[in-house]
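Input record (one chain):
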Amino acid sequence: MSKHTHTHSREQPLIFVLKSGVDPLYQLNKLSDSLGIQNDIRALSLGQGQGPAAEKLISEGVKSGDWILLQNCHLASSWLPNLVTIWEEIDFQNAHKDFRLWLTSYPSEEFPTSLLQGGVKIALQHPAGIRNNIHSFYKSEFIQSANFYQWKKEDGNGKIETIFHRLVYSLAFFHAVVIERSHFGSQGWNLPYHFSTSDLEVSARQLKSLLAGEKKPPFEALRYLTAECNYGGRIIDQNDRILINSLLKQFYNDQISSGKKRRYLGEVYGYPEDFSIEEVQLYSNNINIPVEPEALGLNSFASVLRNENETKLFLSGVLSTQPQVGMGRELSRLDIVLETGTDLLSKVPDDLLSDLEEKFPTSYHECLNSVLKLEIERYNKLIRLVRTSLKDLMSALKGEIIMSLEIEQTLSKVVRNQLPDSWKKISYESEYELSQYITDLANRVQFLNGWITNGTPNTFWFPGFYFPHSFLTAVLENFARSSKVPVSDVYFRFKVFKPEETVGSATTCITGLHIEGASWDVKSGKLVECRTMNRYTELPRIGLIPSSDTAKLRGYRCPVYMTPRRAGETNTAGHSCNYIFSIHLPTDDEDSHWINRGVAAVCQVPF
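The corresponding structure, as predicted from the sequence alone:
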């Protein structure tokens, strides 16, 4: 960074291209201190309404020679054209020779091309792997500072000093774990989070502050500050919040601080005997790159998922660079699209029968009738859109109608075997490619047709519901009304049936769920570790047993999602819209074991 500062002109803005977990402000402050201009940096975080303040800063900086730092430019995309204009109008011949403009931004399509081409780009990447994360932390000025790492006698005895160093290393290891888990997709975290070194440093300062004068670490306070405030302040998914608390307990506990337990997650790596900075770095050299999934709390087969995610990301990038297919392409390509479109159109199912009032009347004691009608209404709307969209595409390719913008977008998606945007707006959650999506849609319609033809079943194919929440609510309401209790006092209890086991006619069951991150042992009827490379294991029939009994449910609380991605818009309860509910599965292991594994059940799995 120092090299760029001395060699570049004041007419070139310096642009930090941000990555997850990286904060350039520390490096910039360190650089300014080395140059003796620490008081000449004026920073502003951009956002709504910050445009005038940024313009004033730049205007003053041109005259005074201050360094102007505009952070998070990607959050002010509507103001960025104004920044281009301001930059072009600056009279650099009369500007102060020390003036510099620093910009930080995550990759964004809205960032002005002229600034990118004329500026100096600096990409800061977070250290890769647990080993490099620990090395980076112990080489930082924060740790090298005698004021932090060296324990003063008045702060406590030698025993507390050892505990302090042991917990600092544990905290650094924990920080590396939460960052590395992001490479494992939804098994790592439901949503991507930008954990940074500032989270680690603040947590370390709080650790030292709370240890001073204490005989033993106040773990409850430490875990709350670290997992709920510092790192948890970035987390918006409720199940991710449960996960980070579970992970931190593996590093902040009495056994680790007392030295009774020497290793962390998966019993793979631990902490050194000597906590001098040099010895810590030598000890951490034994950590492999890439690190074993078990050291992150995941199962040994999770590395396959990491490789799969990286391959998909690479191929999607390659695919995005391919030229769009338009009417000017060669006839053979259009013939292929016509053939594909015709094949897809032939697989689109017919509309579902909607006149069901006689066979499935609206009834106070049978809420599932209303669920069926709503499901049919949603599916028919989707089927008609899919059929109309494909017919219009075929007609446009044949020259029978004009190729509109919407049809052209559909064409582009069909060529790539992707779902058109117009379908996604009214579709159920799905990660399938276009051809798989049509097959899945036909399977869902077949499930509902069976319901219509044969009457309300006892066992429901759960992935077939457009909106499964309504089905679950209807089952609870049926029980509440028949038992004459408030529906708010009714909860599900669960029973996983064996294949040969008979299910009573009064029991509502669901099928079609697949477990990810673990396996199901049919013989013992319990959750067990993965034994094969298969990513998913199908669960047997699960009985949904409504009850007003408030006794605590036993077993692992397993979240159920619509798709393996698990991510979605977060609702007011802190759950992703992809989340449906949680089931309790019998197991011999602690809940934290499966929470750290990222174990969940999903409705939709690849064909």
